[in-house]
Design goal:
Shape of chain A: elongated
Distance between the termini of chain B: 54 Å
Oligomer: heterodimer
Strand content of chain B: 25-35%
Number of helices of chain B: 10
Largest interface: A-B, 38 and 35 residues
Number of strands of chain B: 28
Strand content of chain A: 25-35%
Structural class of chain B: alpha/beta
Radius of gyration of chain B: 22 Å
Radius of gyration of chain A: 23 Å
Largest sheet of chain B: 7 strands, mixed
Chain lengths: 424, 379
């Protein structure tokens, strides 16, 4: 029988609705990051770098990009005869069929997958964060403490602690209390949503809680284990860890990569981040072009000016165009004499000649003021913007737009154009 | 596919000067993101050739490293695969490959065991796109015994180092001169041949019995009157890398839009091994113009009309002009480089100057990186 010491279960089914149009056709873990990666590359690379060769990826929301990205796991060396990567979508059963209704429910529905590897430990991960972490060190900590459950936790500023699941520990790092989004936090150690379970404890808890609706690790399973007298420990992590859940934090985390010596360094040989790379050709910077304080993916062609940007693979910036403080994803084409400032433009977009994006006074978004803030212009994948239009701040555009969509050739700040079902 | 592939990648040339000290020509980095052999490997896989043997003997370490997995070119299949054959000592043979025909003869068991009716023989030192299916169709339509892929020689190239051919109206080769002192045509062999597998086995055995070892002079030219030999004219870009000048020019050609579009943006794609490098990083003070930059580079200075291969670091206030910087080179601050080819993994001391005054200068200092970095006052 196959036996694996520890297998990983990666929750990648979430929409990430706070990323707005960036996730209207793509699950959050499949959103591009840092010029060539997708968010899920970080936990997947951490797995293989930590010696975990069996990873179940649970998908549900918009899985197409995610599925084709993962494939059979070649980029992460997760194409294995035994184990490797397996994509686990919800499935139909003879009596019931249900969607994944919560993080723990999703894992519960895949008990048989885990069982087939007869593991001692199961690592639960989410595909939402940017970090490099050695899960093997966490497992060592788990074993040393003879723990039943270990939760990775990171210190956060006290004033932000009420946004997280907070763990309270004793001196031995044993968890004495677990509070989900407490009003008055008693500690600033936030759960990172990364858990190591003894397999038997995980299995028994999931079965015991199977009738819990929307069964969630933070809300149900961890309290259940805690109340049942299990040994819960907090593994403190003090390195770079970034939640890129909002457009603002997503933009910031990308921009941090262009610092002279970024806090999150992708240029070290140790602990490489792997990704599926289908564009391998070099990038070309033309005579008369200007590139400064930017990172640029393979195959890009730069004829204009690129300043303070993160550009994905295969992006073209035509002559006379200025792109500033922006994130431009894979294969997007930006026409001539355009001006783009503080924008996030997703994959395969076509931006017309002479467009001005991210200009004008700030205004509150009419679509969703909590999502489209930060002064960003956000453009979803496969969007087409006709030439010579002006697009303001806190805007959202998605779909094949034409001149008729822009009265007076502009979309003022706070405005939006969402054309469902129409793509280029 | 009806053919198997043989890539002759053993070559070295004194015209490469010290560029070939480190590796065989076929393993030379070309076109900013590739190695020379990637072009023929991609052409074969794109033509659905599933079985490819690479024959190599001169300094194959770098080539071997590049071919450590066949998956990048899609050869990791149950049927077929990618084979690297270097000379081995056997009960009845302890020779190195004594020539191209001998290299194939020493692996004749491989040829005999396969079932594909045709063989495409190609060299590993050319930059081009070729559709071998089309060439094979031509070969069959002409009822040719051997088809030689030919190209028009660029005007700056010296025909004396090529096989010069003359074709008649039908495309039949009526004259073939290997490396002639005086060329009577500007059409040359690209070193790519299509031949029936059984015919090849026969010719190689015959050749070996006669104690002859070279495919061009001992097989092709000697069979000229006996076998029907046709030339297939290749359209599109073709370059053979066999001298420092051709190496430099070929890389610089990639700065031209038509060449870039042809290789980078038009189907079929050229594949290469993936190194999982981060995007190139341009810091404050970088000024890159008309240059190709590969992944993993970090640039803090001026770079003009140059090709920077993967993982090159360029310090502050340096100037790089009309140069090729191979992978992994580390260039300190205030370095001036002009008309140079900087060898891979080189470490250049801050404040140093390298200028190719008459012709291209090859920079191969072999400094110890930690010593230079100490002198540069880093790490």
């Amino acid at each position: 029988m196959i036996r694996k010491e520890m297998i990983a279960m990666l929750l990648a089914g979430g929409q990430g609705s706070r990323l707005g149009v960036l996730t209207s056709d793509v699950a959050k873990p499949a959103v591009s990051f840092g010029g060539k990666y997708r968010i899920i590359d970080f936990p997947l690379s951490n797995c293989i770098n930590s010696g975990i060769d069996t990873v179940g990826v649970l998908t549900q929301y918009q899985p197409l990009v995610l599925n084709s990205h993962i494939g059979i796991g070649i980029p992460w060396d997760l194409d294995r005869n035994n184990g490797g990567v397996a994509v686990l979508p919800p499935y139909e059963r003879s009596d019931t069929s249900e969607w994944y209704s919560g993080t723990a429910n999703a894992i519960y529905q895949n008990l048989k997958y885990m069982e087939s590897y007869n593991p001692e430990y199961v690592l639960i991960l989410s595909g939402d964060h940017i970090y490099k972490m050695d899960y093997e060190a966490m497992l060592d900590f788990h074993k040393q403490n003879n723990a039943d459950v270990t939760i990775a936790a990171i210190p956060v500023p006290m004033e932000e602690a009420s946004r997280f699941g907070i763990v309270v520990t004793d001196e031995e790092k044993q968890i004495t209390a677990f509070e989900e989004k407490p009003e008055r936090p008693r500690s600033n150690l936030a759960s990172m949503g990364i858990y190591i379970f003894n397999w038997s404890v995980l299995r028994d808890s999931l079965i015991a809680m199977r009738d819990q609706s929307n069964c969630d690790f933070g809300k149900h399973i961890i309290p259940y284990c805690h109340d049942g007298g299990k040994r819960l420990f907090a593994y403190e992590f003090n390195d770079y860890w970034k939640d890129v859940g909002t457009l603002g934090s997503y933009w910031e985390a990308n921009m941090e990569l262009i610092d002279l010596i970024p806090e999150f360094n992708l240029y070290e040989d140790y602990w490489k981040i792997y990704t599926k790379q289908d564009i391998i050709e070099p990038q070309y910077v033309a005579a008369g072009a200007k590139v400064e304080r930017s990172i640029i993916g393979a195959g890009a062609q730069i004829y204009g000016q690129v300043i303070n940007c993160v550009l994905g693979a295969g992006v073209t910036v035509e002559e006379g165009t200025v792109v500033k403080d922006s994130i431009i994803m894979k294969n997007t084409h930006i026409g001539k004499k355009a001006y783009i400032e503080k924008a996030i433009i997703a994959e395969n977009c076509i931006i017309g000649d002479g467009d001005e994006i991210g200009v004008g006074e700030e205004a509150v978004s009419q679509l969703n003021a909590s999502i489209y803030a930060f002064g960003l212009a956000t453009i979803g994948e496969n969007t087409v913007i006709p030439p010579h239009v002006k697009v303001g701040k806190n805007t959202a555009i998605k779909g094949m737009t034409t001149n008729e969509d822009y009265p007076d050739a502009q979309l003022p700040s706070g405005g939006y154009i969402i054309k469902a079902g129409e793509t280029s | 596919m009806k053919a198997l592939g043989i890539i002759l990648a053993g070559g070295n040339s004194s015209r490469m000067q010290n560029l070939s000290e480190k590796r065989a020509i076929s393993a030379l980095p070309v076109g900013c993101s590739y190695r020379c052999i990637d072009f023929v490997l991609s052409n074969m896989t794109n033509s659905n050739i599933q079985t490819v043997a690479v024959l190599s003997q001169y300094n194959a370490r770098s080539l071997n490293e590049h071919l450590n997995s066949s998956k990048w070119w899609n050869f990791g299949r149950k049927q077929g695969g990618l084979f690297l054959f270097t000379p081995t000592v056997t009960v009845d043979n302890s020779w190195w490959y004594r020539g191209t025909a001998d290299a194939m003869w020493q692996n004749i068991d491989f040829l005999k065991k396969r079932h594909e009716p045709y063989v495409v023989i190609a060299s590993g030192d050319c930059v081009s796109k070729m559709d071998f299916n089309e060439i094979l169709d031509y070969h069959i339509a002409k009822q040719s015994d051997i088809t030689v892929v030919c190209a028009k020689l660029p005007s700056w190239e010296d025909p004396k180092r090529f096989g010069v051919v003359q074709l008649d109206m039908e495309g039949k080769i009526i004259d073939f001169n290997e490396k002639p002192m005086v060329a009577n045509s500007d059409i040359v062999s690209t070193g790519v041949y299509v031949i029936r597998r059984r015919t090849l086995i026969e010719l190689l055995e015959q050749c070996n019995e006669e104690g002859r070892y070279n495919f061009v002079t001992d097989v092709l030219i000697r069979q000229k009157g006996l076998k029907k030999i046709y030339g297939y004219m290749l359209e599109g870009y073709w370059s053979n890398i066999a001298s420092v000048e051709s190496y430099y020019r070929t890389n610089m050609d990639f700065l031209k839009k038509d060449v870039r579009d042809y290789f980078f943006h038009q189907e079929p794609q050229i594949y290469s091994k993936s190194y999982d490098l981060p995007p190139a990083k341009y810091n404050t003070g970088s000024g890159v113009t008309n240059s190709l930059i590969a992944s993993g580079c970090i640039i803090n200075s001026k770079v003009e009309n140059s090709v920077l291969f993967k993982k090159v670091f360029v310090g502050n206030n340096s100037v790089i002009k009309n140069s090729i910087i191979m992978n992994g080179a580390y260039i300190g601050d205030n370095v001036h480089i002009e008309n140079c080819i900087v060898e891979s993994s080189e470490t250049l001391l801050s404040g140093s100057t390298y200028i190719g005054e008459d012709g291209i200068r090859i920079v191969a200092e072999r400094n110890k990186r930690y010593e230079v970095q100490q002198m540069n006052g880093e790490g």
